[in-house]
Task: inverse folding
């Protein structure tokens, strides 16, 4: 059975428990548990961490601890019964553990390791505290260390400051707020600092000062390891002050035997001493421990002859020193002994023995010898603090070892009564003796005796040092052969006080012979008495004594024989008539010096003091003796304090009338002497004397009389020094008075009590009289009053011994009341008066409630006056703090209602006013008047805030009721409410208390909410109906809002433990205030309208607080507001506007969440449902809810580590919402600028410009003034628009979108012109011209476009289930884009198919991304149709202002023909229309509309053939008109690709598919299209014929075999098509395969004419449809997909990146006619990047940046990487240049040979590309042998899609002087024209299952060359050009130099035009001489297109322009090449590689 536990209530988990049993409670190691029940080895209870979860756990897993149980039963609480510091350490360590790990995660490694160290220290200190083996002082010290470390860690971790008292956490309920504030302040400083502050405050208030703590050194000699002396030794230790050059302590003596051990065996381990009574001042001196070693033995250590062995002498040996300063730090930190080794140095010259220690300290190494080893005296040291009693109590082991107490020379800092000491310290200084006829100097030994008056030698009165017993005789050490010895040895003479008078010292001098006898011969003596005849002792000085001759036969039995002789010079002067016939004769040449120092509490060396102590011997001189007491030194007085005081009171009793005043003055002098800081610590001595030794029972009468006399005469006397001294001594005078009265009363059983009381009352009347005097005219009187006020509070305790509390309080009240008010006295007296009041409040008297009721009114009166005038604020705050502290303490024990009532009446209003003044000044940084101390205003603010809070906290219901009832009028009440509300608001706004003062902040909040609850009823009662006052109500609401929003109350941000603690103590104060606020709002009634819209924002802020209850309370207020405004205005526009405005700013500050949005909508819609205006209300709430969705998305993006794209998208979404849905222009403009800043940060300059353009378009060219807004100053609208236009133009320029900037330039130019601002006009026109130059000259990359679908509910609102088209970054391909998107949405899943997702994906809680590339459909097709427009211009329009995009998907409709798949291959073409054109304000826009069409196989074939024809015509035309000349490789490859593909099955597949009778029968509607296809095939044959003719003219002799092969294959092609197109042989007779020589063929072949073949009109829809795709199908694909799979191959060096291949499928135009399998709709990207493209490409070219540069910016790619696009919806003009290049080199593989020419280094066609040029592969190796090498500058790598070529074909252009400007050649940027659908004549098909080799077979389309030529790599050829000729800008990839060339012309008179150009020299490029045929005959021209107007003949003018342009254009590099003209001139190569000069 489970039974409740009785004792086992609290425990700690010592082993983790996983809760594996039913009802098991999971517990972690170290958790604490509260135990409720037990059963058979199991407990049931809760974890303190989770008190709501009960469970069971094993009993043996718990370590039980004692605890206090309160409220036993179901709701019992358990508090562990352990030291509160231990509890705090435990809780803190648990809290730190979590934060400590986070430090490592956040890379705050330094703090991480520091905190670990501190945590280990805390654990160790906690263990010590729990051990229970520490003394009280050790416990205190451990707690101090603990709290210092706890506070350090809390501060560094940003945790709350813990207020403490005596190292324990204080309970804020038990102390006043003022005390709590002070504890917070002190906790911020170290324990030492706070202690020193307390000491200074106590001293200032005159309280008893703590005695200074003495220090003690414990020294123990462990061993003398370097004792190789072989004789006994004496070691003397002493403390030596280097600066003063003297010993400051007695000597500690250790006697050692020759082995280094103690001579006395009992001393083993007891050779220790305690150097006592060192003051703090001593510890700062430069002290050394000095050890002198004296050996006892032969005269000379190493000479056995010197002296007999039985005679031992004391001889100097060595010395060792140790600096206390060096070791003080180390011995202070530890509480145990620490060992040190002292080296013993020997003296080189015995004459300097007395200075050896100084020489060692000064390191005068020539005067001593260092030991041979490091060993020596091993000592241990320990520093102890405290008085001797404490030391004995705490360190009993030290005293048990028989420690020798070694005192200071002189007195300690404090001499307590009863300390009796009588020590005379004598130092043997020096002597000067005669040689006495000896040849060598003497070995002198001094023997000293202490003799009494009767000649008796005093026993045991000589001490060589502590540690050894005293002796009767002293023998000095002997200095060898030295007649002038210097000893410097100190001897202590502890002579009894009764033997001191009459005693004398006798010094005997002997010569120690070193002869065999070794006799010690006496040759002289000296003596000195210890006391003078006048009774004074020997003075502390050096005494030079006379030396008297004597010998061994002399006798000293009759000491009177020599005592009558003078002992020294002073003595001789006193008695000059000395007979010379005495037995002892003085040796005049010999002297002997000693010095003495007396340390005696009974003997003095001062004559005046001695006279006072023996006053009875001089009865006539008593008056003079008392007067001379002032001249006695303070040291002597404090030394004999007790004796002096006893004497004074005896004198007073002897004759009161005669000596009374003098004794009084002497007493005052002594008392004031103790006020001196030097003697301040003797005050306890005085206190002890008064309590225990004072016996003057009658003294009080005379003391009162004298004191009263002084006060009564204070107004009359001019000199008041003695009066002021008496006032300062008031405290001790009263102590004497009271103690005297007590003694008298005790002796007389209380007689004369009334007289005593009467005299005291009269004395107080005199005191009041002094204080009431007007001191403004007398400065001396001011000092008298100040002295009296300073001393006055100190007498209260004495009076309380004789009077009741009430009587003393009345005395004090009368005295304080007699002081004039602050208006009548000066500021200095103000301070003194307030300090006196402060001491009164701090006194014991004020702690009695009876006295407080009497004193409080007068104290409060003075404080009130000062606060009113804002004077002495700091002192006043201190007084108030003390009062509140006392009242709080008293309130815990008794009733303080009356006192609080007094304080409320007197202080509350003035406190509020004072705080308002201080706060306003602190905000303006003014100094507070009366602030005498240097504390800052913030500290004073904190003091007064704590005072106000203390008062409010003490106020009860009754107090508040009385307060509110006492206001005379509502105006007074209103003023009070406004003040208190304002103060409360400032409290929360100004953050008076630092952030980490959480205890203080919470208590403040609790007091405020309690006070507001009391005041709100008064507000409602007095200011609601007719007396409504907006100001008060508004103040109240503002306060409530600020209160709820306080950071300290946001419990959601705190740890669970802290939150629980706060909720248990205070509850959630936000909810309390919210209820109060709602209640007051409801009480407003019709006055609510006054707070609309003013309070909407503040209330909104409250509802955004993440507290559900607060939200539920406050959100309905908005419905109320809407309702009231609806009633008043018929709408709620104000509520709507304000709510939306404030919502934005509040959410951006981090407030609000998804729950709030739902709750807001739910609560308001529920309320609105019942209203008549429900429709508008619901609409508004819906709008706000949607706005919140966007704002929350925006905030989440901004605050997180989101990418720029998400932030920009979110901002665009929000901006558009503000513009379109709620029409908030200002917010719209704000977000425009935020978006612009984001674009600039991401370097999206074009988008930034478009964004800023939105704001510019809102402005007009007017002079309307505009206010300051954002970063714009106040200016006119015209100025702002101008500035914006300039900035936008600048951004367009940085984004290289000059076409967009030009209209703005023009707009600005119009404005400048209208204002005649020609300077600006000139600037803008130049800018516009620069932009035109940039368009033509600078290179721009064409971006890719990608369609992205965001599916799933996990996406942000603005992306969810939407699709976008994104404009990619420069060089960004599909794979890179896909990776970027997946990194932006790491949780997203990439979809592997292009199909539109179903609802399961759209509604799932996940993220799906669907990405593929799309092709842009340009809107501006007119520019693209113009022949003369350069390609650089067209390139821009191909990829800008694009709103429509397309992608294709091939599929088979019906049964698939395995032999010819083109019969059933259809294309599904999707066109996407965006909401806005790209580029725009974002890099991506949402898809607005989707359109889907299907293209039939026949239409696809028509488009493919037509596109190839257009391509061939363009290329041939360029060669015909010499726009491309020199290198014929391009034409060769193009012709080879078409002819070879056709021969090997190319367009024949179309014949099989669509010219079949079955097909024609089944599709009768396609007859016209079939006819069209036939005509196109016929046209192709004719165009090929013309092309071959052109090829004949330009082909290099070495390329003739290729040309012959082409002719042969062309014949085969014609013959293969002959049966279908019987007229083919007639079209091209020159190519009919006859044996006519080739030259004849070419000559006979005339220009093509319109009549010779039917051509499709170039502007026809069919032609337009066919002109948008370049790549074509192949009948013999080498890389194709298997059934169901599309393996995408590419190469990383020149092919597509993975993104291009993403889910690619065959284009509708890309099927292979020989394919047996077609690819289904799903796509699989299964090849790694290294496997894609040509398998023969060597690795070294895989990542070639040069190859990347070769790739043109080309848009000839499928509209998606999945499916190539075939045709455009609206059709586009043909781009002949791109078509020709694509068909010519599209399918060829990249060649690995670096020697290949530009044309040869082509990009492989992707599997989805088809072309008519499979034969090109064969030509490449052959061409490469004759092509020059081309070097590309290094640029960032950029991969291209399938079908792209890598050449820049401007290399084929040449300069024509007459030629009009025309389309430039392809730039390095991608061409934006749409791809041409593939052709079945392409050699690579995405649907062919074979992967055959290029072996010349029918399937390969290559008849003569094998693929192996592609597999070889060779070293690059040597450079023939030099970099020296390259200008600095030559490698700028942003520039591209183009040569204009003639457009393609279809005219019968083309030769005429060409003829006019012959005068212009032309040259070849990239080919060696001889490649270009020398035949100058023009090939036949292509027939002109119908309906195409001729271009006029251009004159040389244009050529001149071009020439001039060349001179200024930067050149890239020189290529040396032969020229074919006679005239040499500079010609430009239009590719980046530079120029060629002859």
Result:
């Amino acid at each position: 059975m489970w039974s409740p536990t009785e004792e086992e209530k609290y425990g700690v988990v010592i082993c983790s428990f996983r809760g594996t049993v039913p009802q098991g409670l999971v517990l972690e190691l170290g958790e604490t548990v509260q135990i409720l029940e037990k059963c058979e080895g199991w407990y049931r209870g809760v974890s303190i961490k989770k008190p709501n979860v009960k469970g069971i756990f094993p009993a043996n897993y718990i370590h039980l601890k004692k605890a206090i149980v309160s409220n036993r039963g179901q709701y019992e609480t358990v508090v562990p019964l352990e030291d509160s510091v231990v509890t705090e350490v435990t809780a803190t360590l648990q809290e730190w553990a979590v934060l400590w790990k986070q430090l490592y995660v956040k890379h705050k490694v330094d703090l991480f390791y520091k905190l670990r160290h501190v945590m280990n220290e805390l654990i160790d200190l906690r263990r010590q505290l729990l051990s229970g083996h520490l003394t009280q002082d050790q416990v205190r010290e451990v707690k101090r260390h603990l709290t210092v470390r706890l506070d350090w860690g809390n501060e560094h971790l940003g945790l709350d400051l813990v207020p403490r008292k005596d190292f324990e956490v204080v309970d804020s309920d038990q102390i006043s707020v003022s005390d709590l504030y002070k504890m917070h302040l002190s906790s911020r400083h170290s324990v030492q600092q706070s202690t020193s502050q307390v000491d200074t405050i106590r001293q200032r208030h005159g309280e008893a000062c703590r005695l200074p703590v003495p220090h003690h050194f414990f020294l123990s000699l462990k061993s003398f390891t370097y004792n190789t002396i072989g004789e006994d030794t004496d070691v003397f230790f002493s403390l030596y002050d280097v600066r003063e050059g003297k010993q400051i302590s007695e000597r500690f003596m250790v006697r050692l035997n020759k082995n280094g051990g103690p001579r006395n065996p009992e001393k083993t381990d007891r050779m220790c001493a305690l150097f006592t009574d060192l003051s703090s001042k001593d510890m700062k001196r430069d002290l050394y421990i000095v050890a002198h070693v004296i050996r006892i033995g032969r005269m000379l250590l190493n000479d056995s002859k010197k002296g007999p062995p039985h005679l031992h002498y004391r001889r100097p040996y060595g010395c060792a020193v140790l600096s206390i300063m060096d070791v003080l730090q180390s011995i202070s930190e530890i509480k145990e002994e620490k060992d040190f080794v002292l080296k013993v140095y020997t003296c080189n010259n015995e004459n300097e023995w007395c200075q050896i220690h100084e020489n060692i300290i000064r390191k005068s190494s020539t005067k001593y010898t260092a030991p041979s080893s490091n060993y020596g005296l091993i000592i241990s040291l320990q520093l102890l603090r405290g008085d001797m009693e404490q030391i004995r109590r705490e360190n009993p082991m030290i005293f048990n070892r028989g420690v020798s107490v070694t005192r200071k020379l002189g007195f300690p800092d404090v001499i307590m009564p009863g300390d009796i000491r009588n020590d005379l310290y004598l130092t043997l200084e020096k002597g000067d003796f005669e040689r006495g006829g000896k040849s060598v100097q003497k070995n002198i030994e001094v023997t000293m005796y202490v003799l009494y008056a009767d000649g008796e030698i005093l026993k045991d009165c000589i001490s060589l040092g502590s540690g050894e017993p005293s002796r009767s005789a002293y023998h000095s050490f002997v200095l060898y052969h030295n007649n002038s010895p210097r000893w410097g040895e100190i001897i202590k003479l502890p002579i009894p006080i009764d033997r001191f008078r009459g005693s004398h010292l006798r010094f005997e001098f002997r010569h120690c012979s070193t002869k065999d006898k070794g006799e010690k011969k006496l040759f002289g003596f000296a003596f000195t008495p210890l006391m003078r005849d006048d009774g004074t002792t020997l003075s502390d000085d050096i005494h030079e004594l006379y030396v008297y001759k004597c010998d061994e036969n002399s006798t000293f039995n009759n000491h009177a024989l020599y005592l009558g002789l003078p002992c020294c010079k002073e003595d001789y002067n006193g008695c000059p008539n000395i007979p010379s016939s005495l037995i002892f004769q003085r040796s005049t040449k010999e002297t002997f010096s000693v010095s003495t120092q007396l340390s005696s509490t009974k003997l003095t060396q001062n004559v005046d003091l001695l006279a006072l102590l023996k006053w009875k011997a001089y009865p006539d001189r008593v008056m003079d003796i008392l007067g001379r007491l002032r001249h006695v030194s303070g040291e002597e007085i404090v030394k004999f304090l007790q004796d002096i005081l006893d004497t004074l009171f005896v004198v007073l009793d002897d004759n009161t009338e005669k000596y009374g005043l003098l004794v009084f003055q002497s007493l005052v002098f002594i008392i004031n002497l103790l006020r001196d800081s030097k003697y301040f610590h003797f005050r306890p001595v005085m206190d002890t004397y008064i309590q225990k030794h004072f016996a003057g029972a009658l003294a009080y009468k005379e003391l009162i009389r004298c004191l009263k006399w002084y006060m009564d005469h204070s107004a009359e006397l001019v000199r008041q020094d003695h009066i002021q001294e008496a006032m300062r001594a008031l405290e001790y005078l009263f102590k004497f008075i009271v103690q005297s009265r007590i003694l008298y009363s005790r002796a007389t059983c209380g007689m004369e009590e009334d007289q005593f009381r009467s005299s005291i009352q009269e004395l107080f009347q005199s005191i009041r009289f002094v204080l009431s005097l007007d001191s403004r005219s007398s400065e001396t009187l001011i000092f008298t009053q100040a002295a009296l006020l300073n001393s006055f509070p100190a007498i209260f305790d004495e009076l309380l011994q004789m009077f009741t509390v009430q009587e003393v309080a009345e005395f004090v009240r009368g005295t304080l009341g007699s002081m004039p008010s602050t208006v009548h006295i000066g500021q200095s007296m103000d301070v003194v008066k307030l300090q006196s009041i402060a001491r009164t409040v701090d006194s014991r008297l004020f702690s009695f409630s009876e006295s407080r009721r009497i004193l409080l009114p007068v104290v409060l009166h003075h404080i009130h006056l000062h606060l009113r005038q804002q004077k002495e604020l700091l002192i006043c705050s201190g007084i108030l703090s003390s009062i509140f502290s006392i009242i709080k303490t008293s309130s815990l024990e008794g009733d303080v209602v009356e006192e609080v009532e007094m304080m409320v009446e007197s202080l509350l209003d003035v406190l509020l006013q004072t705080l308002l003044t201080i706060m306003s000044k602190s905000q303006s940084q003014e100094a507070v008047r009366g602030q005498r101390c240097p504390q800052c205003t913030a500290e004073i603010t904190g003091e007064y805030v704590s005072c106000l809070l203390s008062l409010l906290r003490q106020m009860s219901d009754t107090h508040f009721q009385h307060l509110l009832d006492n206001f005379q009028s509502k105006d007074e009440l209103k003023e009070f409410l406004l003040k208190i509300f304002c103060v409360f608001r400032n409290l929360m706004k100004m953050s008076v208390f630092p952030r980490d003062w959480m205890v203080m902040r919470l208590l403040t909040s609790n007091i405020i909410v309690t006070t507001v609850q009391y005041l709100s009823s008064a507000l409602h009662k007095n200011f609601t109906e007719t007396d409504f006052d907006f100001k008060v109500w508004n103040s109240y609401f503002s306060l409530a809002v600020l209160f709820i929003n306080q950071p300290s109350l946001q419990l959601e941000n705190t740890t669970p433990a802290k939150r629980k603690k706060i909720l248990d103590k205070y509850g959630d104060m936000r909810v309390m205030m919210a209820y109060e606020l709602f209640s007051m709002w409801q009480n407003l009634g019709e006055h609510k309208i006054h707070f609309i819209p003013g309070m909407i924002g503040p209330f909104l802020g409250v509802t955004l607080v993440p507290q559900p209850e607060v939200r539920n309370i406050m959100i309905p207020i908005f419905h109320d507001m809407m309702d009231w405004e609806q009633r008043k205005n018929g709408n709620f526009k104000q509520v709507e506007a304000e709510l939306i405005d404030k919502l934005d700013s509040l959410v951006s500050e981090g407030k609000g969440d998804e729950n709030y949005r739902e709750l807001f909508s739910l609560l308001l819609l529920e309320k609105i449902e019942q209203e008549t205006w429900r429709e508008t209300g619901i609409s508004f709430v819906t709008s706000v809810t949607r706005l919140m969705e966007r704002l929350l998305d925006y905030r989440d993006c901004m605050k997180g580590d989101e990418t720029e794209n998400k932030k920009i998208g979110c901002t665009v979404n929000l901006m558009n919402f503000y513009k379109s849905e709620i029409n908030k222009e200002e917010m719209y403009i704000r977000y425009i600028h935020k978006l612009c800043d984001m674009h600039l940060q991401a370097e999206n300059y074009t988008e930034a410009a478009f964004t800023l353009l939105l704001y510019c378009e809102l402005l007009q060219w007017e002079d309307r003034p505009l206010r300051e807004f954002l970063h714009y100053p106040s200016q006119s609208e015209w100025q702002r628009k101008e500035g914006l236009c300039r900035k936008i133009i600048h951004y367009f320029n940085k984004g290289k979108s000059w076409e967009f900037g030009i209209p703005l330039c023009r707009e600005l130019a119009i404005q400048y012109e209208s204002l005649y601002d020609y300077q600006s006009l000139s600037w803008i026109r130049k800018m516009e011209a620069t932009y035109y130059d940039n368009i033509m000259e600078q290179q721009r990359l064409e971006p890719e476009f990608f369609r992205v679908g965001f599916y799933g509910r996990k996406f942000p609102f603005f992306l969810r289930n939407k699709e976008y088209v994104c404009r990619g970054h420069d060089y960004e391909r599909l794979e890179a884009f896909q990776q970027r998107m997946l990194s932006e949405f790491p949780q997203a899943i990439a979809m592997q198919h292009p199909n539109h997702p179903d609802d399961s994906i759209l509604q799932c809680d996940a993220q799906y991304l669907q990405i593929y590339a799309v092709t842009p459909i340009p809107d501006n097709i007119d520019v693209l149709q113009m022949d003369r427009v350069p390609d650089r211009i067209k390139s821009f329009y191909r990829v800008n202002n694009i709103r429509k995009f397309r992608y294709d998907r091939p599929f088979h409709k019906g049964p698939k023909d395995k032999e010819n798949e083109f019969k059933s291959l259809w294309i599904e073409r999707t066109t996407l229309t965006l909401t806005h054109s790209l580029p725009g304000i974002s890099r991506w826009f949402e898809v607005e509309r989707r359109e889907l069409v299907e293209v039939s196989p026949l239409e696809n074939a028509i488009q493919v053939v037509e596109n190839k024809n257009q391509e061939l015509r363009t290329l041939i035309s360029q060669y015909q008109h010499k726009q491309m000349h020199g290198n014929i490789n391009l034409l060769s490859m193009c012709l080879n690709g078409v002819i070879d593909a056709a021969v090997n099955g190319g367009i024949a597949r179309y014949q099989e598919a669509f010219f079949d009778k079955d097909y024609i029968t089944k599709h009768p509607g396609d007859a016209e299209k079939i006819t069209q296809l036939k005509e196109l095939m016929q046209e192709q044959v004719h165009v090929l014929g013309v092309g071959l003719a052109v090829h004949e003219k330009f082909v290099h002799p070495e390329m003739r075999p290729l040309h012959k092969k082409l002719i042969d294959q062309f014949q085969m092609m014609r013959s293969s098509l002959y049966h279908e197109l019987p007229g083919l042989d007639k079209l091209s007779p020159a190519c009919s395969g006859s044996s006519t020589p080739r030259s004849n063929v070419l000559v006979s072949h005339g220009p093509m004419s319109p009549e010779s073949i039917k051509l499709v009109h170039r502007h026809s829809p069919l032609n337009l449809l066919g002109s948008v795709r370049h790549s074509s199908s192949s009948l013999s694909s080498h890389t194709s997909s298997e059934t169901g799979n599309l393996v995408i191959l590419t190469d990383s060096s020149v092919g597509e990146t993975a993104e291009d291949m993403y889910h690619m499928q065959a284009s509708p135009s890309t099927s292979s006619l020989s394919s047996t399998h077609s690819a289904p709709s799903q796509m699989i990207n299964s090849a790694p990047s290294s496997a894609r493209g040509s398998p023969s490409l060597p690795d070294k070219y895989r990542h070639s940046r040069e190859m990347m540069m070769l790739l043109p910016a080309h848009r000839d790619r499928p509209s998606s990487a999945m499916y190539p696009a075939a045709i455009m919806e609206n059709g586009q003009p043909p781009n002949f240049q791109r078509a020709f290049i694509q068909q010519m080199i599209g399918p060829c593989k990249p060649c690995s040979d670096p020697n290949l020419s530009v044309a040869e280094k082509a990009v492989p066609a992707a599997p989805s590309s088809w072309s008519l040029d499979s034969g090109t592969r064969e030509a490449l190796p052959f061409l490469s042998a004759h092509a020059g090498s081309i070097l590309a500058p290094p640029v960032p790598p950029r991969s291209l899609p399938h079908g792209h070529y890598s050449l820049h074909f401007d290399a084929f252009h040449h300069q024509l002087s007459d030629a009009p400007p025309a389309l430039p050649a392809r730039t390095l940027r991608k061409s934006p024209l749409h791809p041409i659908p593939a052709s079945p004549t392409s050699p690579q098909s995405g649907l062919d299952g074979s992967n055959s080799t290029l072996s010349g077979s029918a399937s390969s389309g290559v008849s003569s060359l094998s693929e192996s030529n592609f597999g070889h790599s060779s070293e690059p050829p040597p450079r023939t050009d030099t970099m020296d000729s390259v200008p600095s800008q030559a490698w700028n990839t942003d520039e591209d130099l183009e040569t204009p060339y003639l457009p393609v012309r279809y005219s019968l008179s083309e030769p005429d035009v060409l003829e006019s150009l012959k005068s212009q020299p032309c040259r070849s490029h990239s080919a060696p001489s001889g490649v270009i045929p020398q035949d100058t005959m023009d090939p036949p021209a292509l027939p002109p297109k119908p309906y195409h107007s001729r271009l006029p003949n251009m004159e040389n003018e244009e050529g001149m322009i071009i020439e001039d342009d060349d001179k200024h254009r930067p050149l890239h590099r020189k290529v040396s090449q032969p020229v074919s003209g006679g005239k040499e001139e500079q010609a430009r190569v239009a590719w980046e590689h530079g120029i060629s000069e002859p």
